Amino acid sequence: MSVTRPTGFRAAGATAGLKASGRPDVALVVNDGPEHVAAAVFTSNRVQAAPVLWSRQAVADGRLDAVILNSGGANACTGHQGFQDTHATAEKVADLLGISAGDVAVCSTGLIGELLPMAKLLSGCEAVATSLSADGGPAAAEAIMTTDTVSKQASFRATGWSVGGMAKGAGMLAPGLATMLVVLTTDAIVSAAQLEAALRTATRLTFDRVDSDGCMSTNDTVIALASGASGIPVPDHAIERALTEVCADLAMQLVRDAEGAAHDIRIDVVSAATESDALTVARSIARNNLFKCAIFGGDPNWGRILAAVGTTDAAFDPATIDVAINGILVCRAGGVGDDRTLVDLSPREVHIVVHLKSGDAAATVWTNDLTHDYVHENSAYST
Amino acid sequence: MSVTRPTGFRAAGATAGLKASGRPDVALVVNDGPEHVAAAVFTSNRVQAAPVLWSRQAVADGRLDAVILNSGGANACTGHQGFQDTHATAEKVADLLGISAGDVAVCSTGLIGELLPMAKLLSGCEAVATSLSADGGPAAAEAIMTTDTVSKQASFRATGWSVGGMAKGAGMLAPGLATMLVVLTTDAIVSAAQLEAALRTATRLTFDRVDSDGCMSTNDTVIALASGASGIPVPDHAIERALTEVCADLAMQLVRDAEGAAHDIRIDVVSAATESDALTVARSIARNNLFKCAIFGGDPNWGRILAAVGTTDAAFDPATIDVAINGILVCRAGGVGDDRTLVDLSPREVHIVVHLKSGDAAATVWTNDLTHDYVHENSAYST
């Protein structure tokens, strides 16, 4: 499990005192090589946190030696001082490890709009640098949690090589990417171009299809590191499949631990004219607060699904669309279908299927219901 | 006040038994002329309720003699039977009043996806037709309430003529239009083209700028009726101003009574490159659940505003944007501004100002916070 599953990696977590809770808040993942191949994808939000701006530059040459991560503060909307703080963090880690600051990615998560307490953070860097170990993955995964209730780790094992990963993410989960920090590791021998292509495919089909609350973060980052320590060169399709499996596993862990959620909702839009149409419809449903409240209330209120579909420009005929909730075809041909009281919404997993009857394309989006606990957690988060 | 404020109109409300609560649920507004000019705007949702489909046809010739409205059922996603039910309702009212069914608009509001109990509704039509009176506006306004806690009425008085209006709307408030039913009346002499143009301008600047929960209904309808009973011809700008004032008044009543809301939030986006940019940014903020939860929690979490702005394609520089909450400039030049603890969020009214610093355009959107009561009301609505 986790980022130290593949050979060639060490990791650690420590408590720097950034969080009021006193829980671990600094993590470090180091690639000991022999190779130091890296790729990353970042939030598509135009307001980007200082660590995103820094890490985008750091990974541009396809090489990273280490990733330093902190919870307890996003270092977003913090101006020049925020960027200098990120730079200083990378320099500190580089000094401690005897590497170049330009090969250190920085990730931060927490409240937007406050400067990080740098003395504490730099002390935390020292703590993690001196406690690195080949089984430090779980400690690193724990140190990046914010409102997560459990740490998220996953791995994929092939013959002679493997992929590991850790993630944090609980609120602000929406595409482009879903809001989160993710570090993936592999000991396969892959080129930077291979890793980049595989990572883009993997995130497009996994994290990008998670839309817990429609809110896109300023700090989303997914970084993949390849050490080559297995000595095994791996073809494109193999690394793509391995990364996709690990990302899918982590994405489902994010959904299951979304802030305050009582239901995990899988929305399949099928028989769409295009995948883009299917995705547009699935996202529109996933972002409809009335629908999400209804699911929380155990109410198979399919009219709210139809109303959400109707706001899109996807190809469909309101007079032929079908909708099933947990296997009951509650809407048939755009009208009243089977008895809605037959729908059982007591399980945590809810399955919506929308039949657009306009083609052969399909897409799936995962979301959560809208609950009292979501409101509670997000109205009290920064205070 | 209300739709019977102008001369030439009668109205009534009655209880047909469509609502479990036993409260009034059928309303009728009749234009006694001498003129019968009408205009209407409808939801832009592609899934449109049967009464919307019917009324769009009825008003196409610029004439309506009456509007029959019911709460307790939306008659949306009800297929051919639903349309036949709407047709039967119009025929019944036409018979009772001795007019043509093609001059009767029908509006319905309530749960989507269930057929109306027609025997009850047709009895209700008889009840309202026999109780029509020149001071029946308030009774009609009460009969169209669903989860509204108060009825909504407004009026505008000019020299010798006036405009009156009533509205219902509490949940599913989002543009295109905001979700609601509205009937406006005037005794001015105006042409159908004048009334249509004035109504489009009025709704664009009022109801279309209300976005309580981002959810667009299948039943939104705003109908304007002109009796000409004042004998006074009115120029374009005068009818436009009068309709806009009444619509703005009703729109603010909708915001103040939005389901479960604890705060009314005015979002001004200023110094935008275009009005469209300003509107896009304002809507993005208005639909951000995390921001809306923060306001509910009394937390001036401006980072969530920046994150919402960053998801748009509006012209702005993340390094220069300013944000004020209730007069405190919490974000200056994209970074930390004045002390956020100075912001007082205890009043119900909250004022957000976003300075994009990209031009001279501006737009305002009204929304509400996201509260426990919103989740409660919308998870229990149909059960």
UniProtKB/TrEMBL annotation, chains A, B:
Catalytic reaction list: L-glutamate + acetyl-CoA = N-acetyl-L-glutamate + CoA + H(+); N(2)-acetyl-L-ornithine + L-glutamate = N-acetyl-L-glutamate + L-ornithine
Listed Pfam families: ArgJ
Keywords annotated in UniProt: Acyltransferase, Amino-acid biosynthesis, Arginine biosynthesis, Autocatalytic cleavage, Cytoplasm, Multifunctional enzyme, Transferase
Enzyme Commission (EC) number: 2.3.1.35, 2.3.1.1
Residues the record marks as site: Involved in the stabilization of negative charge on the oxyanion by the formation of the oxyanion hole: 109-110
Subcellular location: Cytoplasm
Chain residues that bind substrate: 146, 168, 179, 259, 378, 383
Quaternary assembly: Heterotetramer of two alpha and two beta chains.
Protein function: Catalyzes two activities which are involved in the cyclic version of arginine biosynthesis: the synthesis of N-acetylglutamate from glutamate and acetyl-CoA as the acetyl donor, and of ornithine by transacetylation between N(2)-acetylornithine and glutamate.
PANTHER family: ARGININE BIOSYNTHESIS BIFUNCTIONAL PROTEIN ARGJ, ARGININE BIOSYNTHESIS BIFUNCTIONAL PROTEIN ARGJ, MITOCHONDRIAL
Family: Belongs to the ArgJ family.
Protein name, entry field: Arginine biosynthesis bifunctional protein ArgJ
Natural source organism: Nostocoides jenkinsii Ben 74
Gene name linked to the record: argJ
